[in-house]
Amino acid sequence: MEPWQLTATAATALLQEGRLTAEALTRSCLERIAERDPVTKAWSYLDPLLAIRSAREVDKTYVRGVLHGLPLGVKDMIDTADMPTTHNSPIYQGLQQGRDAACVGIARGEGAVILGKTDTVEFAAGGRRALTRNPHDAARTPGGSSSGSAAAVADGMVPLAFGTQTGGSTIRPASFCGIYAMKPTHGVVNSEGAKRYSHTLDTIGWYARAPSDLRLVAEAFRLFGIEAPTGKTVQQLRIGVCQGPNWHLAEEESQNALLLAAKRLEAAGAIVEELALPQPFEGITEAQRVVLLGEGRGAFLQEYLQAHGTLHADFRDRVENFADITGPQLAGAYNLAGDCRKLWDALFPRFDAVLTPAAVGEAPLGRQDTGNPVFNSMWTLLHVPCIAIPATRGPHGMPVGVQIVGPRFGDAALLDVAAAVAPVIDAE
Amino acid sequence: MEPWQLTATAATALLQEGRLTAEALTRSCLERIAERDPVTKAWSYLDPLLAIRSAREVDKTYVRGVLHGLPLGVKDMIDTADMPTTHNSPIYQGLQQGRDAACVGIARGEGAVILGKTDTVEFAAGGRRALTRNPHDAARTPGGSSSGSAAAVADGMVPLAFGTQTGGSTIRPASFCGIYAMKPTHGVVNSEGAKRYSHTLDTIGWYARAPSDLRLVAEAFRLFGIEAPTGKTVQQLRIGVCQGPNWHLAEEESQNALLLAAKRLEAAGAIVEELALPQPFEGITEAQRVVLLGEGRGAFLQEYLQAHGTLHADFRDRVENFADITGPQLAGAYNLAGDCRKLWDALFPRFDAVLTPAAVGEAPLGRQDTGNPVFNSMWTLLHVPCIAIPATRGPHGMPVGVQIVGPRFGDAALLDVAAAVAPVIDAE
Question: Domain B3-220 is of which CATH architecture?
Answer without folding.
Answer: Alpha-Beta Complex (3.90)
